[in-house]
Amino acid sequence: MTLLIVIASLGLLVLLITYWKVNSFISFLLVSIFAGVCFGLPLPDIAKSIQKGLGDTLGSLVVILVLGAMLGKLVAASGAAKQISGTLIDLFGLKNITWGLMLTGFVIGIPLFYNVGFVLMIPLIFSLVQQYKIPPLMAGVPMMASLSVAHGFLPPHPSPAALVAQFHANMGETLILGIMVAIPAIILAGPIFAKTLAHLPVKPLKSFAAAEVEETNLPSKTASFIAALFPVFLLVGTTIAEVQMPDSSVVKFIADPAMVMLVAILVATYVLGIRRGKKIEEVMNVYGEAVKEVAMILLIIAGAGTLKEILLISGVSQEIASYLGGLPIHPLVLGWMMAAIIRVCLGSATIAGLTAAGMIYPLVAAGGVNANLMVLSIGAGSLMFSHVNDTGFWLFKEYFNLTVKETLRSWSLMETIVSLTGLAGVMLLDQFL
């Protein structure tokens, strides 16, 4: 009976978001109440659980996600993202331009949220298509694959960061392992897969062609790379330092993800703002816009936390975990499968990852599975087969002026390759950890 209630709750969530077009945050709250009532929880306990789920989920994430959004916004607004992309493409040259675009998407994708990176990089892709007569999908797919992988696998992006917090994983270790998994995923789904799309007669819309940007207004290459990649360097550095000095309170303080992002935003404020003659008010205005853009993501994450709390307090989550634990399927594959199923049904990678995490959490808490790898496994599952219920599908279709069939052949298959390769990478790492 309890399993039927869970299935009914997920079904209601799908209907609310996709059919009735209810806001995702409100949908999670309504489904949490529905599930609590069906499980027989007292109404006051349901209300308390919702508040606890909201608080516990946001408590460890607000600083990370908000500062991450601020960093990404400044990297984009200052021209650092354009400087990075131009530098990498010049480095690889025309012959290997698809590999340059892949690496550009990956570097840009670390600090930028997916939609921001997508819209920011599209003009660059189309300008290269026009200038060098490259097949549009051969230019676009490698970069989009990289942006997608960063979005699904790597903290401080919303879903991976939330999963790290929920599973009590180590953000630095997850980032290092995520990069290891990401590399083969973006190579297969990017330059290699893109070669199979060269024959498609795609004509991107001229309205999305790039506008000329004054190169003199861009920050230096050094400043651009330092600002964009500083969180990565600091997370990796502090993770190594923790191994060398496990009892150092200073290292533990700096290694905290919130402190990493705070230091990163201070560095970016200086190198991309103050050092270039920008007034502090101008930089703060950029940060204010970033907070507005990330607000709904925070609410969706908080809403997913309420459903997780209802499943935990009712004991159903443990029951599901016991049932799943008895299946002859590896826990990491189970996490991937649950996220993939929800992704195909709902479309949102973030919601898929967070919802799956709430159901798989007891398996992680009981031990026997690497929490960092579970973050990556669920992240890979959350990218599985994007189709007509995903906004990313339509963004790609409209910008590249594709038919639905062509979008399925390119975008949807690219996401599927990313997801399956990600799972394979996670399972391979599991053999050594």
Feature tags:
433 residues; 0% strand; globular
Q: Structural class given helices, strands, pairing? A: mainly alpha
Element-by-element helix/strand order: HHHHHHHHHHHHHHHHHHHH
The whole-angstrom Rg is 21 Å
Q: Tally the structural domains.
A: 1
Describe the secondary-structure layout:
Layout: H1 2-19, H2 24-38, H3 43-59, H4 62-77, H5 80-92, H6 97-109, H7 114-132, H8 136-153, H9 158-167, H10 171-194, H11 221-244, H12 249-255, H13 257-272, H14 280-313, H15 316-325, H16 331-346, H17 349-365, H18 371-381, H19 391-399, H20 404-430
Helix pairs in contact: 1-2, 2-3, 2-14, 3-14, 4-13, 4-14, 5-6, 5-11, 6-7, 6-8, 6-10, 7-8, 8-10, 8-20, 9-17, 9-18, 10-11, 10-18, 10-20, 11-12, 11-13, 14-17, 15-17, 16-17, 16-18, 17-18, 18-20, 19-20
Protein name: Gluconate transporter
Family: Belongs to the GntP permease family.
GO molecular function, one term: gluconate transmembrane transporter activity
